[in-house]
Amino acid sequence: MRSLVLLACxxxxxxxxxxxxxxxxxxxxxxxxxxxxxxxxxxxGRLAHDSTRCLAALRFVRDTQRMSAEVExxxxxxxxxxxxxxxxRITAAGTTALGVGAEAARFFERLRAHGxxxxxxxxxxxxxxxxRFRYAGTDCLFNVYEGARLFTEAEFRVNDAVSPRAGEAxxxxxxxxxxxMDAAPR
Length: 186
Prior knowledge:
The chain is of the alpha+beta class. It has a domain at about 50-180. Helices cover about 25% and strands about 30% of the residues. The protein has helices at about 10, 35-40, 45-50, 55-65, 100-115, 155-160, and strands at about 5, 20-25, 70-80, 85-95, 115-120, 130-135, 140-145, 170-180. The strands form 2 sheets. It has a 6-stranded antiparallel sheet with strand order 3-4-8-7-6-5. The protein has a two-stranded antiparallel sheet with strand order 1-2. A hairpin with a 4-residue loop joins strand 3 and strand 4 (about 85-95). The longest helix has 14 residues, at about 100-115.
């Protein structure tokens, strides 16, 4: 496979000590590929499914929220568009002294302050701290929650990387990012 997995500190700047964040660097496009078109053709299907759509959201959870985060490719069953789409997911964990409910509100306020806007006809679950936002041609569903819920290896790793201090609580975020698209008719 022609995409590289690197530490986010190498891709996005220095990371907080002790917090490892994985990110996928996009593979070369057909225009920039060192391979001739005939040799690159068999690779195109595998190169199309990467996690570059998660980079802006990764910067937000890592740099603004100071969360430990991991990015993975994902196929998302998107109820909004009624399609199964290639995308990516971020599994993140952080700490807060505010309590998880107040932290979720602050999380979404900060997201808006960083240029993310609510996706039109978002069809999300705002009473469950699950909101869909759009930024630079990407729609991401951000879900802020408390306690392990996914029981995935990524969730275990990011939780293990975060140690709440006295008076703090651990909280998690799951972010699923897809190409920005119109919603399916109701």
